[in-house]
Write a structure and sequence with these properties.
- The C terminus is likely disordered.
- The chain is built from 13 helices and no strands.
- The chain is mainly α.
- The longest helix has 35 residues.
Length: 350
């Protein structure tokens, strides 16, 4: 029997959140991996982020749109407001002078305009994801409410994606263009949620087949494809193939993890991705400055990819230290009203 909801707390979801934010942070370290490894990570990186959001969306929880809107506003737009305010002030009074001429040439009104338009490029670039997710979830709510067929929603999402490519529509307010771009993955993930508790026959064979299809698509896309439309179609298909593999992989690893400090840290990272998104570029920049000052080397321009991984993990760890203080002393920044110290300990599901 298919269950229509995911249990309240699943370890593999925490792990999936952790892997997603790790890939996002890793992408912002340089240099990037080349070839098929980079192509695979590209197919997984942002679609995986929207995968988790799509899996957790359950319209049955929201009898009224106003309640859904308030919830998403609180969890997404309030952090967007506070982090933007903080980093805009730092940029205005400190950051511009530190960076120099290139930043001083930017009018102070430009970031303010970007904030209103939901396109925070200058002071909080990674938060395009927040405004994109907010726009996407509002659109998807109405699609889910008025279109009963999940397959039809997928088809409409793909058509919207390809139409966006056809007319080359970019840079829309509140990242609506990016919301349409990633909507197919969000919609597809929401279909998968109904099958999370289902044991498929010959599951390993299916995952192996999807893996082979993904590798073939990446090879063809990398070597043979010149058509823009075909490139995007193959990207969508590869993303769809990767998602079940990603879910099964996270489930397998999470089942092997015992209740340890590592599993608790992974959960904490997953719960505070929104803080890592806000801080990552600044922490990476700080690591770059420290490396130059102490070692005389820009750690972000070496060809040692192991170092990139270590920098990404260090960035996440530092942001988790900040997240502890935010949760305890100023939870309003992330749209929460209950302090961390007031919470009862939660058991980790087995």
């Amino acid at each position: 029997m298919i269950q229509n909801k995911i249990p309240a707390r699943e370890n593999w979801i925490d792990l999936a959140k952790f892997v997603s934010i790790f890939l996002v942070v890793l992408f912002h370290t340089n240099p990037h991996l080349d070839g098929y490894v980079f192509d695979f990570l590209q197919v997984l990186r942002m679609p995986a982020f929207f995968l988790i959001a799509g899996l957790l969306f359950n319209i049955d929880k929201w009898t009224r749109f106003s309640n859904f809107f308030k919830h998403r506003f609180k969890r997404l737009i309030i952090p967007y407001f506070w982090f933007y305010l903080i980093f805009y002030a730092l940029w205005l009074f400190v950051g511009r002078d530190m960076v120099g001429e290139s930043e001083l040439a930017i009018s102070p009104l430009v970031p303010a305009k970007e904030f209103i338009l939901g396109k925070p490029n200058v002071v909080l670039g990674p938060y395009w994801f927040i405004t994109c997710l907010f726009s996407m979830q509002i659109v998807f709510y109405f699609l889910k409410k008025y279109l009963k067929s999940s397959v039809l929603i997928i088809i409409i999402s793909i058509i919207g994606y390809l139409a966006l490519v056809a007319i080359n529509l970019t840079d829309l307010p509140w990242c609506i263009d990016k919301a349409l771009q990633y909507m197919p993955f969000y919609a597809y993930a929401n279909i998968l949620r109904a099958h999370m508790q289902t044991t498929w026959p010959k599951r390993r064979l299916i995952v192996l087949l999807l893996s082979i299809i993904t590798v073939v698509i990446l090879y063809v896309n990398h070597q043979r494809v010149s058509s823009t439309y075909l490139h995007h179609i193959l990207y969508i298909i590869a993303g769809f193939c990767v998602m079940p593999i990603y879910i099964d992989g996270c489930k397998y690893v999470s089942n092997k993890l015992e209740v340890t400090n590592l599993s608790r840290w992974i959960r904490h990272v997953g719960d505070n991705n929104i803080i890592t998104l806000a801080l990552q570029n600044y922490i990476i920049g700080f690591i770059k400055i420290v490396g130059i000052a102490t070692l005389g080397v820009n750690l972000l321009t070496t060809n040692h990819y192991t170092l990139n991984v270590l920098i990404a993990l260090a960035t996440i760890s530092i942001s988790m230290g900040v997240s502890f203080f935010i949760n305890r002393y100023s939870p309003f920044i992330i749209g929460k009203s209950v302090r961390l110290s007031d919470r009862k300990p939660k058991e980790i599901s087995s």
